Amino acid sequence: ADVFADIMQVKGIDFVPRFWRALAVNPDHLESVWRQLKYWMHPEACGREPKLDARTREMIAIAVSSTNGCAYCVNSHTATAQKLGMDAATLGEVLAIAGLFNMTNALADGMQIEPDVRPSFE
Fold it and tell me: Is the domain of 30 the same as that of 67?
């Protein structure tokens, strides 16, 4: 499929990962998910100037994947982040921060604490 060729080219790999092969049972869904992932995780391939560097994007993906319990995604994004220079100590820090905020979020929600401040993007 053309989507498979684009995945391999953009990611710089010579195989189609199992995740994408599984999504191919519904070609429209495959294309939609790839388009979104490509836009956010590979912005340069879309002609977009990213606000975050590639390693930071991968570290966010690791933290979210860990929180969601997705071993496939944790492994995939950790391997990519390692190629981008992330070492074991940095991974440990990413996971410690993710774990900390999982706990503090649960505490704040469970205790129904109202925010002290709210962001302003004006």
Answer: no
